[in-house]
Specification:
Layout: E1 10-16, H1 21-30, E2 37-44, H2 53-57, E3 62-64, H3 70-83, E4 88-91, H4 100-105, E5 109-114, H5 126-132, E6 137-144, E7 154-161, H6 168-191
Parallel strand pairs: 1-2, 1-4, 2-3, 4-5
Antiparallel strand pairs: 5-6, 6-7
Helix pairs in contact: 1-6, 5-6
């Protein structure tokens, strides 16, 4: 019997602003045969993002967009993603807030990874805040992007125990390891069972 031909991978764009460690993991994940995504575009809000090196390394098209004017920036990005027929966007350390207009105009799904156990600690400095509040656990969350900051429907979460000796830096490192596992798992969860 002939094997059924696998479904085509979902064309995906990754948005970054920093080191791109989640981007790297997602690229590696996309190369696996059973992965539901292909990464066709990397968008950065700054040309200084170290993560842009992965576009060269893995031969993926990149676009750097200046966000001095959000409306113009988003219009440019929508153009790029429509040309590439992108249907899925993963925010990976993208430090700009996407407008309601962009979310409505993009004909696909947008997800984000956040370094806390949402709904706790939306926004920045999540590790520091969790330690200062003497939380027993911290972690990371993959969620849908909605018009409110870090408030979209939760897809998956992973917990990390906060130890007495933990600092914001050591906690960040521990959580980042979990992020690298959680993001691909969340993508599989929502795209494999469509």
């Amino acid at each position: 019997m002939k094997k059924l031909i696998g479904r085509k991978k979902t064309k995906t764009a990754i948005f970054i602003s920093g080191t791109g460690s989640n981007l790297k993991k997602l690229i590696q994940f996309s190369k696996i045969k059973k992965s539901p995504i292909s990464i066709d575009l990397i968008v950065s809000s700054t040309k200084k993002a170290p993560g842009l090196k992965y576009s060269k390394q893995y031969k993926i098209e990149k676009k750097v967009v200046n966000f001095k004017n959000n409306k113009i920036a988003e219009k440019k990005i929508l153009n790029f993603i429509n040309k590439k027929k992108i249907k899925f966007i993963c925010l990976a350390g993208f430090m700009k807030i996407i407008s309601k207009n962009f979310i409505q105009k993009f004909n696909g799904k947008i997800i984000n990874i956040h370094p806390s156990l949402l709904p706790k600690y939306k926004g920045l400095n999540t590790h520091k805040r969790a330690i200062e509040n003497k939380e027993k656990f911290a972690g990371c969350t993959v969620h849908y992007v909605s018009t409110k900051l870090d408030s979209g429907k939760i897809i998956l979460q992973k917990k990390v125990k906060i130890k007495k000796k933990d600092t914001a830096i050591s906690l960040k490192k521990k959580i980042l390891k979990k992020e690298h596992q959680l993001y691909p798992a969340a993508i599989k969860k929502i795209l494999v069972n469509l």
